[in-house]
Specification:
By secondary structure, the chain is α+β, with helices and mostly antiparallel strands. The protein has one domain. Helix content is 26%, strand content 27%. It has four helices and six strands, in the order αββββααββα. Helix 1 runs parallel beside helix 4 and helix 3 packs antiparallel against helix 4. The longest helix has 20 residues. The two termini are 16 Å apart.
Length: 229
C-alpha cells in the first residue's frame, strides 16, 4: 500500500476537507476518528518543538474516506526526517483488515553510513514503531511493513555531492474499532516517536511532560502483541 506523493501540502491546521476527507457524507465514525488524530497531533506539538505537523492531501483511491498528516523532524535547526500518516476508512472493511479503519505510516530519515550498513537496522527500525504502538495504541492488529536502506549517490553535475544514506519505514495496521479514539490518538504519538528515534532526537525533550498512552490513560499496554505479524 503506497502513500500518495503530492507536491503541495495543504495548509496546516486547516479543515478536514483540505487533508482529503470526503465532505458531506463521511458519517460520525470517520469524523470522530479524524478528531482523535488531530487531538494526538496537537498533544505532540504542545510538548515538542522539534517536530512540525501539517495537513496533507490524502490518497483518494485506497478507501472511500481518507485523511492524512505530514510531519518534519528538526535536529539543531536542520531537517532530519519526514513522515506521513494516512487514516483509511471503509465501512464495509477490506481484505486483510480486522475492522473498518486502517492506518498507513511512513518515516524517512538520513542516517550515518555505519548505521545503514548494520544488518540489524531493519529489526531495530521496526521495533521503534511496534514498541511505540505497544505503549500508545496497544489495541493495534494485523500490522505489516517494510524497512528500507536508501543510498543516494550523485553523478554528472551532482558528482561532487557526497553520498548520503537513509532509512525508510513503511507500515500499516488496524486500530481497534471499539477504542478508536484512544487508538488513533495513540497512533499519532507512536508515529511521532518512531520518527524521533529514526532522526536521532530524544524520546522526550528535556523539561517536557511525558505523553502517556490513550487520551484518557485508562488502558494497560501490551495488547498489540496479539496483532503483530
Amino acid at each position: 500500500m503506497r502513500l500518495a506523493d503530492t507536491p503541495v501540502p495543504a495548509r496546516a491546521g486547516g479543515d478536514a476537507d483540505a487533508a482529503g476527507t470526503v465532505p458531506g457524507s463521511t458519517g460520525l465514525p470517520f469524523v470522530t476518528a479524524v478528531a482523535a488524530l488531530q487531538a494526538g497531533r496537537d498533544a505532540v506539538a504542545e510538548v515538542r518543538d522539534d517536530l512540525a505537523f501539517e495537513d496533507w492531501p490524502a490518497p483518494k483511491r485506497l478507501a472511500p474516506h481518507a485523511f492524512a498528516l505530514a510531519i518534519t523532524a528538526y535536529r539543531d535547526g536542520e531537517e532530519a526526517g519526514t513522515g506521513k500518516l494516512v487514516l483509511l476508512h471503509d465501512a464495509a472493511g477490506q481484505d486483510g483488515w480486522t475492522g473498518t479503519f486502517r492506518v498507513v505510516a511512513q518515516v524517512h530519515a538520513d542516517v550515518e553510513e555505519e548505521m545503514a550498513a548494520d544488518p540489524l537496522l531493519g529489526e531495530v527500525g521496526w521495533s521503534w514503531l511496534t514498541e511505540a504502538l505497544d505503549l500508545h495504541a496497544p489495541g493495534y492488529e494485523a500490522a505489516s511493513g517494510t524497512v528500507t536502506r536508501v543510498i543516494t549517490e550523485g553523478y554528472g553535475a551532482k558528482a561532487d555531492e557526497p553520498p548520503s544514506t537513509g532509512f525508510e519505514l513503511r507500515a500499516s495496521w488496524c486500530p481497534a474499532d471499539d477504542e478508536i479514539e484512544d487508538e488513533l490518538y495513540g497512533a499519532v504519538l507512536a508515529w511521532s516517536d518512531a520518527l524521533a528515534a529514526a532522526a536521532g532526537l530524544p524520546a522526550q525533550p528535556p523539561g517536557t511532560r511525558a505523553l502517556g498512552h490513550g487520551r484518557r490513560g485508562s488502558r494497560g499496554t501490551g495488547g498489540g502483541s496479539r496483532g503483530r505479524q
